[in-house]
Amino acid sequence: MVHAKEPTKSSWLRDRPLLFVDIDGVISLFGFAPDAVPPGTWTQVDGIAHLLSAAATRHLHALADRYELVWCSGWEEKANEHLPHLLGLGPFPHLSFPVAAGREHWKLSSVSRHAGDRPLAWVDDAFDESCWAWAKRREAPTLLVPTEPACGLDGRCFERLRDWAAELGAPRP
């Protein structure tokens, strides 16, 4: 009888697809009408007010067992300085972004380098044509999930991410 070796936590993490998470417009909401403030928590980060979406936080907690989360935001290392205690999420790896050259989206080279040939989903409020073209060219499964900055990672986005991970057969803990 052959016994399969139990997967280690590090191999289990590598088996899950990556989920690149922008912050502004995904978790930190803006652009909503003053009389229609979404549920969330107001906080200040470096003197800037942010409304951290209760729905996005709840959805990311639910997705964390299906994906390996990566902060993909101009916040860079500040994501791990602020969000773990504000949201109860992380710390997670974060991307840094070199000065973009050419016509490519400013996050694209960092996302591509970090992802390698792994399946990935990326949730952001500011995709451009270069992102969509890159996703189409990738050999690994790739899902881009656009958000509206006033709603962020809402139920529709969550269901799309959850269902896509299930289609891939993403392992669960």
Structural overview:
The chain has 173 residues and is α/β, with parallel strands linked by helices. The protein has one domain (9-168): 3-Layer(aba) Sandwich (Rossmann fold). Helices cover 34% and strands 18% of the residues. It is built from six helices and seven strands; from the N terminus they run αββββαβααβαβα. It has helices at 9-15, 54-63, 78-87, 108-115, 129-137, 155-168, and strands spanning 18-21, 28-29, 40-45, 48-53, 68-71, 120-124, 142-146. A four-stranded parallel beta sheet has the order 5-1-6-7, with helices on both faces. The radius of gyration is 17 Å and the shape is globular. The model is unreliable at 1-13 (pLDDT under 50).
Return the average pLDDT rounded to an integer: 90
Tell me roughly what share of residues is in helical segments. Answer: 25-40%
**H/E order of the elements?**
HEEEEHEHHEHEH
- Shape call: globular
The CATH homologous superfamily name equals HAD superfamily/HAD-like
The count of domains is: 1
Which radius of gyration do the C-alpha atoms yield? 17 Å
Briefly note the structural class of the backbone.
alpha/beta
Distance between the termini: 25 Å
